[in-house]
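Sample A.
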Amino acid sequence: MIRVMLADDHGVLRDGLRRLLEADTGITVVAAAKDGREAIARAAETRPDVIVMDVSMPNLGGIAATRSILGSAPATGVVMLSMHSSDETIHWALDAGARGYLLKDSASDEVVSAVRAVAAGGCYLGQGIALKSFEPDGGLAGHLTTSERRVLRLIVEGKSNAEAAQILDLSPRTVETYRARLMEKLQLEDLPALVKFAIRNGITSVD
């Protein structure tokens, strides 16, 4: 069972997300918060697997709250919700450690998929996100093979090793090898850094 916390200052949206998520038998909502400071406190109390976090909230915003929560519970998956699709906001969210980003106008269709992907250790970037203004990382993307780019794109889409293997007609072990090779080749330390690299270089499902 995936344990989820909701953080949003709009009660109607929180209630709607709760109903949507709990319609999935593998997800339960264990806590809710109306601002960033409450989100930090409730996350410490309940230790959710995934937090669906609004970017803009009173008292303390979602990005600052995410950074604080992940400082003490780095394994927590955070899916950011926002009305904003600017590259700058997305970059800040990923830099804080979020592994998912959804626009509010499409969240109802994608939030279950995002929660499941992030809970499984993957990432999820929602549809409708424009990512055109990131600068490429010194040409490193040009050194990736076609197979490495395909694996990277599927990682960013939140696919597990098994799912990526099925799509690419490879073994899960081979996909894991590609993933480790990408981290080494790009000199990246963790999954959020890998996602940010993919975004900056246009290697995503929205390119």
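Sample B.
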Amino acid sequence: MAEIMAFSRDQVRRLTGLSDKQLRYWDDTGFFSPRYAEEDRRGAYARIYSYRDLVGLRAIAEMRKSVSLQELRRVGEWLSRNYNEPWSSLTFYVAGRRVFFDDPDTGELTAGRPAGQRAMRIDMARVERQVDAAVQRLRRRGDEQIGKIIRNRYVVHNVPVLSGTRIPTAAIWDFHEAGYDIAGIMHEYPTLTTGDVEAALAYERNLPSRSERTG
């Protein structure tokens, strides 16, 4: 994936179709917790989901249409003891309101199918394609993000980046120092606007370390 690898609960809600109440409940009860926790200014911890979290939740949301949460919990408890990222790395099947999965070592289902029933395969490659498409739609930046500089410990190691991207302001400055004009920089980063480039250059120009060298 290109520029967004950390997702807020609100973004996950929009990308998976799950409700905020479901995500909070699953997190609180330990059924599915996000990969990261980030302390905010008030000392509380914001919940940050990874891309693999997103894929797993999308698969669970699809299976949830056919099986109970109790069944998913039963499967999840066993899987969590044996796999690092089971919900996004295994192939699942649904049959008779039960969940089955392939054993990665043998390639066989962990439980036999009920006689006369076919299992519905949850195609994880398709789920990932759906997630990718949804993330691409999410990457369409809003007007409020243009020209805004942010920092996030889970995005490019907390360096300043342009909002809605993983493009560091320092990278923009490097092109500027190499003689690129705004049009040239935008050619290198087609998703950026003139306002983005100008904001990045102004941010870098006003850094104390640069001000001392140019002052």
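B remarks: Residues 124-138 form the longest helix (15 residues). The radius of gyration is 22 Å.
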